[in-house]
Automatic annotation (TrEMBL):
Protein name: Neutral ceramidase
Pfam families reported in the protein's UniProt record: Ceramidase_alk, Ceramidse_alk_C
Stretch forming the signal peptide: 1-39
Alphabetical UniProt keywords: Hydrolase, Lipid metabolism, Metal-binding, Signal, Sphingolipid metabolism, Zinc
Originating organism: Mycena rosella
Example of a GO cellular component annotation carried by this entry: extracellular region
Length: 728
């Protein structure tokens, strides 16, 4: 208001009073709009959460790309969290950032979400201002990606997973939209200690010493900074790079890894009595330049029983044990505490929660200024551009190097088929697609990708449909002095720093933001175009370099493109950016070998939900004990129970049973086991490990199922254990 009065009084004091009085109304409108643009400090804010969990059994999990990792139950549901930020007076100046508990964004999923948003909201939420970012977790349900390569281990496309993500993200945006109200934003950062570690440090060392020296106090070969945008009492959005690989590849319970766990821990600390996913406070733990980060902070060791190097650190440059990658595994901080990484997961989540809490508990810098967005499609096969030193450069059609097959210390070996036909003939999807093996690379492709030795020439593999994307989404959001670079892949630590620094310099040079310009990277988002290393790291060809699919100039091409789009973030941008064509739609023609549920049956003389193994009634349980009940089950693919639960722990409160735990509490697990395929029988285990501080009292376990008869429709049933006692 004060600045408005100053603006108006300057006009009134102008040397041409008559003219000024005549034009006063339009001057005052000008003052209003100038000040809105310059000092926008109130935003329209909306936050929402929804469930995106696909089929939790008989489906390949996404992230490790391991054929053997077929899900068998649930640890924690996957969620999408939507954050809408807009200018109160100009609906068009609005962005929506979705942070989803999935391994990566995807073109097909994004396309379907945008179609749903267009149906409901017209032109309010579009390809330009909607971002689908991922937490890059590796224990969620697979089969939703549009390109062929990531579908191989899931035996093709799984429509049920895809639909759960699309519908859940739409619901999260609906909820955020319904909650829109004005509020203010603030921004800050802090150091996260013990939250990540570089998993390819020998590649990082290939970067120039002078450049590395600039970051010795910011984590050296890791970014240890968490950046956080506070929505006040309503929630926050934070960025910190760490792979979602705390839970190991040998786990088969669907979960959300460390960022989903961090969100659960934070949200339930604010509203402890709300069921997970039903809180109003929304905690966003988004991914950043994740490429070479690992949550396995103890390092990587040989798990080679009987070998002299068993328990020793892996060979540093190649991450091998006795010459092969299979035995080299990273270890998280809770390595000794369980066999699947669940304790490490909670510990890596907790350090992120602690960092976010310290930021939310301090006074952060207010965010002021306009909300803008820019988006183009960029075809990265054969993209030509000029490097800052004036030399012409180009990207190449996608290709995977040999080290891609070696995997990483977070999950050695990838995509089982690369081990040769001999060992992969169990994969029926591979049996179909192997006849379309990627074409032999041309001399031009070999030269373009050099020094990468090409294993899979995916950019030239378009049968039965494209194996890798060629066209990616390039997108930036500006909220006051904060700029989010939405990245279609996994930038390594140094690649992220170079891109952020280049865009920041351009924002300042173009007078779009002053010295307070603050740039974060978010992703893998929108499209999954694998990794992005620096040119120097690329030359080393560790896993990340081998998976930098568009060749050695990939990062420079992105730096060129993102910086060139900076002028479109101006308060009054001119023109529209040049975009390549949108990528082709592949989902409708996708192969799918994942078969549906045939039928369910209860064993003779038993009924669905009947207790097979009951809880202990004779003695009281205490904190730390696990209560287990087993029921006659049915296939949970019959009904995903989205926004619901497969189980509950109920407490008897004043004579009434009250649900106190759901399937998303980390203390509970839901496990489904097929007993007989021919008879259609299965069983379900519901486990609850009693947390310390659980009130003494009478409890019971319930199981919620849905059975499919051979003929007829699916029907719901409930199983209930006996009552049991928890002692103080
Ligand atoms: C943290 O924020 C301060 C203040 O904006 C800034 O100077 C500093 O560069 C930030 N740190 C990182 C690593 O971005
Ligand atoms: C291992 O990597 C480091 C850093 O890039 C390099 O200096 C060294 O020569 C490499 N050692 C071997 C055996 O390749
Ligand atoms: C979710 O929260 C709302 C509002 O607090 C409440 O009415 C509803 O019962 C809750 N749902 C569950 C499943 O807890
Ligand atoms: C799961 O994998 C981890 C990492 O390789 C290993 O340490 C652990 O022993 C495995 N768990 C089981 C039950 O095999
Ligand atoms: C890229 O360029 C090469 C050589 O000119 C050509 O063979 C290939 O078809 C191009 N690929 C794409 C996807 O444009
Ligand atoms: C420009 O930079 C590229 C990439 O680092 C390098 O290959 C090229 O030789 C440089 N050109 C000149 C003229 O220095
Ligand atoms: C698999 O490889 C082994 C060793 O190379 C060979 O002896 C065997 O015949 C192969 N099996 C098949 C089915 O090709
Ligand atoms: C649940 O409890 C049963 C019986 O103790 C046990 O076999 C199973 O491993 C437990 N499941 C999980 C996920 O802890
Ligand atoms: C469990 O508690 C309920 C509520 O008090 C009671 O009606 C029921 O008889 C109890 N069941 C058993 C098996 O003790």
């Amino acid at each position: 208001m004060l600045r408005y009065i100053i603006c108006a009084s300057r006009i009134l004091a102008s040397p041409h009073p008559a003219m000024t009085r005549l034009l006063l109304p339009s001057f005052l409108v000008l003052c209003t709009s100038v000040l809105n643009a310059v000092a926008q400090s109130q935003y329209l804010l909306g936050l929402g959460i929804a469930d995106i969990t696909g089929p939790v059994v008989e489906t390949n999990m996404m992230g490790y790309a391991s054929l053997g990792q077929t899900d068998s139950g649930l640890h924690q549901r996957q969620r999408a969290r939507a954050f809408i930020i807009g200018e109160p007076n100009t609906p068009a100046n609005r962005v929506v950032f979705v942070n989803a508990d999935i391994a990566m964004g995807d073109t097909g999923v994004r396309r379907a979400i945008l179609a749903g948003l267009a149906t409901k909201y017209g032109t309010l939420y579009t390809a330009q201002n909607f971002a689908l970012s991922s937490t890059h977790q590796h224990s969620g349900v697979g089969g939703y990606l549009e390109n062929l390569l990531p579908q191989i281990t899931s035996l093709g496309f799984v429509p049920q997973t895809y639909d759960a993500i699309v519908q859940g993200v739409l619901l999260a945006v609906d909820r955020a939209h319904a909650s829109l109200k004005t509020g203010s934003l603030s921004l800050g950062n802090t150091t996260v200690t013990g939250g990540n570690r570089n998993r390819s440090p020998t590649a990082y060392l290939a970067n120039p010493a002078a450049e590395r020296a600039m970051y010795v106090n910011e984590g050296d070969d890791q970014d240890t900074t968490m950046s956080l945008l506070s929505f006040g009492s309503r929630g926050f959005l934070s960025w910190f790079p760490v792979h979602g690989t705390s839970i190991y590849e040998n786990n088969t319970l669907v979960s959300s890894d460390n960022k989903g766990m961090a969100a659960y821990l934070y949200e339930s600390s604010i509203e402890p009595n709300a069921m997970p996913g039903n809180q109003t406070f929304v905690a966003g733990f988004a991914q950043a330049n994740v490429g070479d980060t690992s949550p396995n902070t103890l390092g990587a060791f040989c798990e080679s029983p009987g070998q002299p190097y068993d328990g020793q650190p892996c060979q540093a440059n190649s991450s091998t044990c006795g010459g092969t990658v299979e035995d080299c595994h990273g270890r998280g901080p809770g390595f000794t505490l369980d066999a699947f990484g669940f304790h490490s997961n909670e510990m890596i989540a907790q350090v992120q929660v602690n960092a976010a809490k310290s930021l939310m508990g301090s006074t952060l810098a207010p965010v002021t200024g306009s909300v803008r967005s820019v988006h183009v499609y960029l075809d990265m096969a054969n993209h030509t551009f000029t490097l800052p030193n004036g030399t012409a450069a180009q990207t190449c059609p996608a290709a995977m190097g040999f080290s891609f097959a070696g995997g990483t210390t977070d999950g050695p070996g990838s995509f089982d088929f690369v081990q040769g036909d001999n060992s992969t003939s169990q994969n029926p999807f591979w049996e179909i697609v192997k006849s379309f093996i990627t074409p032999i690379p041309s001399a031009a492709q070999v030269a373009c990708q050099a020094p990468k030795p090409i294993l899979l020439n995916t950019g030239y593999a378009t049968f039965p449909y494209a194996w890798s994307p060629s066209t990616v989404d390039i997108q930036m959001f500006k909220v006051g002095n904060l700029v989010m670079l939405i990245i279609p892949g996994e930038l390594t630590t140094m690649a992220g720093r170079r891109l952020r620094a280049a865009v920041r310099a351009q924002l300042i040079a173009s007078n779009i933001i002053d010295n307070s310009a603050y740039v974060v990277v978010a992703g893998p988002a929108n499209t999954y175009a694998h990794y992005i290393t620096t040119r120097e790291e690329y030359a080393v060809q560790r896993y990340e370099g081998a998976s930098t699919i568009f060749g050695p100039s990939t990062l420079d091409a992105y730096i060129d493109k993102y910086t060139s789009l900076v002028p479109f973030l101006a308060d009054a941008p001119t023109g529209t950016p040049v975009s390549d064509a949108a990528p082709p739609e592949l989902t409708s023609g996708a192969l799918s070998l994942n078969t549906g549920v045939v039928f369910d049956a209860a064993p003779i003389g038993k009924s669905f939900g009947q207790v097979l193994i009951d809880v202990v009634k004779s003695a009281a349980y205490k904190a730390g004990d696990t209560v287990v009940a087993q029921f006659v089950g049915a296939n949970p693919r019959n009904n995903l129970r989205l926004e619901g639960t497969f189980l509950s722990v109920d407490q008897l409160v004043s004579g009434a049973w009250t649900p106190v735990r759901s399937d998303s509490h980390p203390s509970t697990t839901y496990q489904w086991t097929r007993v007989s395929t021919i008879l259609g029988t299965s069983s379900v285990n519901v486990n609850w490990t009693i947390e310390s501080g659980t009130p003494a009292g009478t409890y019971r376990l319930r199981y919620f199922g849905d059975s499919k008869p051979l003929i007829g429709s699916i029907s719901a049933f409930t199983g209930t254990s006996s009552n049991f006692t928890v002692a103080a």
